[in-house]
Amino acid sequence: MASSTNPGLAGVNAFTRPLSPADVEDCVVVENAFPEQERCSKEKFVYRLTKCPELCLGLFIRTEEGSSVLIGHVIATRSSSNRVTDGSMEMPHDWQSLADDEVVMVNGEVIGSEPKGGSVAVHSLAITPAYQGKGVGRSLMNAYIEYIKSGAVHAERIVIIAHDHLIRFYESVGFENRGPSACQFGGGGWFDLVCIIRGQI
């Protein structure tokens, strides 16, 4: 992501890269941008960045000293559903002992990431407070959509849930509002949004 294309990043050396388990602690800090009941836990970060790091993209700035600081992230898993489900927001309790392609089902619902799912289920688009309100989130989501479209990972669609005040934002970067979501994560009140990558649903 070029700093010159985003005024909110003017004068800084910004770049994106896929995240890894080594970034968990920094992701926990960035996630504090959300209300407590909507934050991803450290344990879920470990799970998601271990099982599907290729779906998780970080936005970093490089300091004058040469170190990198995470200022935003997109965290996602795979799903066969064309909506974000409560199950996809969870993680299997024994995930460390599962085979890479193993799917966990509880009461008929897939729990956590579904390795062969055609949907990328985004669970977090977060920007640290110092960079909020400057178009940085829009730039990061645009970069993420282009990253998925580039074929870096195979996906038919990107799905996300959002509160009503963010619907217009997501529509502006290519998502379609599919109406109220059945997902009850964090107390519910969400809307389903879908960005088609290839084909249609």
Automatic annotation (TrEMBL):
The keyword Nucleotide-binding does not apply. GO terms for molecular function: aralkylamine N-acetyltransferase activity. InterPro entries: Acyl_CoA_acyltransferase, GNAT_dom, SNAT-like. Coiled coil: none annotated. Pfam families: Acetyltransf_10. It comes from the Eukaryota. Residues 61-200 form the N-acetyltransferase domain. This is N-acetyltransferase domain-containing protein.
